[in-house]
Amino acid sequence: MSIAETALDQDINALWLYDPDDDVLQPAAISDRGKEVVGDPPVYTGAESLSWKVFQQGSIEIYDDIQSESTRVNEDTPIRSEIILALGDYGVMNMGSTEPADFETRDVSMAQIFANTVETALDRANREQQIREQREEIKQQKERLERFAGVVSQDLRYPLEIAERRVERAQTKSNISQLDGVETALEWMDTLVTNLTTLTQEETQTQNIDAVALSKIAKECQKQTQSSKASVDIDTNALIRANQTRLKQLIENLIQCIVEQNDERVNIHIGETDDGFYIADTGSESGSKSE
After folding, report:
1. How many whole angstroms separate alpha carbon 236 and alpha carbon 140?
2. Selecting from 3.30.450.40, 1.20.1300.10, 3.30.930.10, 3.40.250.10, what CATH number does the domain 2-103 have?
3. Rounded CA gap, 64 and 66, in Å?
4. For residue 61, what are the contacts with CB-CB under 8 A and spacing of at least 6?
5. Which residues belong to any copy of the GAF domain (predicted)?
6. Domain spanning 209-291: which superfamily?
7. Residues 255, 220: contact at Cβ < 8 Å?
8. Are 16 and 27 spatial neighbours (Cβ–Cβ below 8 Å)?
9. Which of 21, 100, 18, 31 is nearest to 64 (CA)?
């Protein structure tokens, strides 16, 4: 409040800002002289008080003798005369004196100009804060989209490859039954896109990392991908730190990929390593293994 002291030549002044959460005027600043005269400034609530009244009215009030005002908060206040100015929706600024009728017309005009300047500064600070928040929100949205694009690119690669191979076989061998696998792959991609979109929208869920029982997730995936072309053997009691939804999706994708890449029935083994887990195709010549 040193600027107010210098600009207005008034050494008793204080600023209150409105707190919408508690619906009160909270003291934000007070001059050294003001602190010396009145001590710690009060919090103004919806109860009857001069400052709250001015704030609600959005006005300016000049009191030549506070002692004559029955709604003053502090009945023993040493302040005798006071100017209270509303700062729009932000709060109020008070200027006081220990002498009655101590403010002239010039003082009131200068106080009004200063209050308008403070309100303008608060407007600017509020806009800058909104811009910072908007930029942060845009940044977070961009990061989510980048993660989504990366996950989509990775997870859709396998079903796309399967669909391409099935179409190629159908064309070269004139075997239309191969197109059944294309329909399965397209359904798989549709499910992936739906799941990934949900994960992107539910950012909190995506970021939750917990200790997850690998065997439990693997058994759920086994039920989801139940196929006559595969048997799944689960041999692990490991607890791993992961997002449960994304882990389940990963295992389902790998199992489905192994199934679709083999024309014959395969045996899939899920086990643990020193620092993770693996999913292995143990019944094919390729012996493909993912960790």
Report:
1. 37
2. 3.30.450.40
3. 7
4. 50, 53, 54, 83, 84
5. 4-123
6. Histidine kinase-like ATPase, C-terminal domain (3.30.565.10)
7. no
8. yes
9. 100
Three-class DSSP labels, 158-192: HHHHHHHHHHHHHHHHCCHHHHHHHHHHHHHHHHH
Over residues 215-234, the pLDDT tens digits come to: 888 888 777 665 567 778 88
Which pLDDT score is estimated for 74? 75
Cα separation, 95 vs 33, in Å, equals 11
Q: Identify the CA nearest to 25 among candidates 95, 91, 83.
A: 91
Q: Specify the pLDDT at position 32.
A: 85
**Among the listed residues 214, 211, 290, 215, the one whose alpha carbon sits nearest the alpha carbon of residue 253:** 290
Cβ-proximal residues to 23 (8 Å cutoff; 6+ apart), any chain = 45, 46
Domain segments of the chain as ranges: 2-103, 209-291
Cα distance between residue 8 and residue 74, in whole Å: 25
Query: Per-residue pLDDT tens for 202-212?
Result: 554 445 788 88
| Ranges of the chain with pLDDT below 50 | 204-206, 285-290
How far CA 105 is from CA of 6, 36, 65, 101, 118, in Å, comes to 18, 26, 16, 11, 20
Give the contacts of 241 (CB within 8 A, at least 6 positions apart): 209, 210, 211, 212
pLDDT at residue 286, as a whole number: 45
